[in-house]
Write a structure and sequence with these properties.
Helix 8 crosses helix 11. Strand 7 and strand 8 form a beta hairpin. The protein is of the alpha+beta class. The strands form 5 sheets. Strands 14, 15, 16, 17, 18, 19, 20 and 21 form an 8-stranded antiparallel sheet that branches. A 5-stranded antiparallel sheet has the order 7-8-12-10-11. The longest helix is centred in the C-terminal third of the chain and has 15 residues. The radius of gyration is 22 Å and the shape is globular. The protein binds flavin-adenine dinucleotide. The site of flavin-adenine dinucleotide (FAD) has 35 residues, from strand 5, helix 5, strand 12 and helix 13. Flavin-adenine dinucleotide (FAD) binds next to strand 5, helix 5, strand 12 and helix 13.
């Protein structure tokens, strides 16, 4: 009888009998893919071309039944397990070598309740899928800024976007989540049911089970919004970043700016003579009436000497996908993140030096201005933890060729290592991606909440079945 070579939870090689695998596959409503054919090749690929992994099995789940069977199968056969939502996590934890992938991407069902202002979405939905359905009713929940990202990984790790200062993180807007835990149980987590699990899935990552669907609170936003996207020459960076800081202190929470320090992309929408030149770009949406947004966003666009000003009124769904093209599938990506306690001149100077040293013209150092609704939530209220830092930086190394891997990875590491001294601690784990720092970064990011996360892990996943994530390790000594 032939066997399938697999990798166990602890990384050892082992074998599974053909009959066992066949029986598992026959029980699924979705497809079970094995290492042959184009469907497998497509399903193992991730957005980040840096990741090239070969799972033994990919369960393309069609519903909760498939997820429960897949979790049970992995646990019973001691299989290394990866969980895939939108497949956008930079570290590529959504696939593994030699183990089982629970692929949720076929599960995209979405139902809006316009009366209650809520939406339930299955975990394979992307931000674009969700916005498409909620915008029909002029409603939205806070998500990220690229429409191809998965709602699942993003929400489980927090989720920041254009609505964060007005309506909070994605995880702050969660009303409930359906979760398949490591022992194969199906639990609903909300303020009133399994409240400890509800606390954990709001920012604690995929540590406690596979979320099969999320229920979110909705807010009136759009369908038309005012969006600001303006580019200034790189030699104005200090002035522009400082102005944005003052702006968020004075202007309404409807605006959540993001500044990007890098080089002008060589694309038609920007004047050719500026292509490849240093720039600082400011992007922001007004999360309210578009006409008022034109007035409120004007100061960000009127600092003078712009390279390009693409600000305009547009449908919310268009604003939500404006940056999609900047992140093509299959390019190579290596990201890091750090919180910054104050954006003073020294911080800006260092940030500029690093941005200018980037080996790739597509790389940026991003400055996320925080505050408002997302920062009013106490650290202990959800697993996500402390939000007091006024600035979070994202260091994005984005490049095309394999031969440039080393230089780009080294750049991102050096930049974040240097910026670390300006941090009161903590990083945004959804951007941090690769965790070479091991537990240290994770403990630091969760702060006081880490202890409670370990207790939850001991309760819901004591053998660390769900380990390919921003992992909180259980205390059991036999666990690796
Ligand atoms: P996946 O790679 O599928 O999942 C990530 C991890 O989450 C998995 O490894 C798994 O551990 C866990 N997971 C996924 N689904 C489930 C589930 N259903 N149950 C349990 N665990 C699960 N973040 C922001 O906050 N704001 C942004 O604006 C933003 N922009 C981005 C733009 C781009 C181009 C990219 C690539 C990422 C961006 N991110 C942003 C980061 C993003 O939040 C994370 O990469 C997130 O992990 C993506 O979720 P996903 O479902 O697509 O990823």
């Amino acid at each position: 009888m032939p066997e399938l070579r697999i990798v166990t939870l602890t990384g050892a090689d082992a074998a599974l009998g053909e009959t066992v695998v066949e029986r598992f596959g026959l029980g699924l409503r979705g497809e079970l893919l094995r290492p042959d054919g184009t469907a497998y090749e497509e399903a193992r690929k991730l957005w980040n071309g840096l990741i090239d992994r070969h799972p033994a099995l990919i369960a393309r789940c069609a519903g909760v039944g498939d997820v429960i069977d897949s979790v049970n199968f992995a646990r019973e056969h001691d299989l290394l397990l990866a969980v895939r939502g939108g497949g956008h996590n930079v570290a590529g934890n959504a696939v593994c070598d030699g183990g089982l992938v629970i692929d949720l991407s076929p599960m995209k069902g979405i139902r809006v309740d316009p009366e209650r202002r809520s939406v339930r979405a299955e975990s394979g939905a992307t931000l674009g899928d969700l916005d498409r359905e909620t915008q029909v009713f002029g409603l939205a929940t806070p998500m990220g800024v690229v429409s191809e990202t998965g709602i699942a990984g993003l929400t489980l790790g927090g989720g920041i976007g254009w609505l964060r200062r007005k309506h909070g993180l994605s995880s702050d807007n969660l009303l409930s989540a359906d979760v398949v835990t490591a022992d194969g149980r199906f639990l609903t987590a909300s303020e009133t049911e399994n409240a400890d699990l509800f606390w954990g899935v709001r920012g604690g990552g995929g540590n406690f089970g596979v979320v099969t669907s999320f229920e979110y609170r909705l807010h009136p936003v759009g369908p038309e919004v005012m969006f600001c996207f303006v580019l200034y020459p790189g030699n104005r960076t200090k002035e522009v970043l400082s102005f944005c800081q003052q702006y968020v202190a004075e202007e309404p929470e409807e605006v959540s700016p993001l500044a990007m320090v890098g080089r002008v992309p060589p694309v038609e929408m920007f004047p050719e003579r500026w292509h490849g030149e240093p720039m600082v770009a400011v992007a922001a949406m007004y999360a309210g009436e578009a006409e008022k947004g034109e007035r409120v966003l004007r100061p960000l666009r009127e600092l003078g000497g712009t390279i390009a000003d693409l600000g305009a009124r547009m449908p919310y769904t268009v604003a939500q996908s404006l940056f999609d093209e900047d992140y093509p599938d299959g390019w190579r990506y290596y990201w890091k993140s750090h919180n910054i306690s104050a954006l003073n001149d020294e911080v800006i100077e260092r940030l500029l030096i690093h941005a200018e040293a980037a080996p790739s013209p597509h790389s940026t150092v991003d400055v996320w201005y925080q505050g408002g609704a997302m920062s009013r939530i106490e650290a202990s209220e959800s697993a996500f933890g402390d939000r007091s830092a006024p600035i979070w930086i994202g260091v994005e190394a984005n490049w095309e060729d394999t031969q440039d891997d080393e230089a780009n990875i080294a750049w991102a590491r050096e930049c974040v290592a240097d910026m670390r001294r300006f941090s009161g601690g903590g990083a945004y784990l959804n951007f941090a991606g690769f965790f070479e720092e091991g537990d240290r970064l994770i403990r630091e990011a969760f702060g006081e909440n880490h202890k409670r996360l370990v207790e939850l892990k001991n309760k819901y996943d004591p053998t660390n079945l769900f380990r390919l994530n921003q992992n909180t390790r259980p205390t059991a000594s036999e666990v690796h």
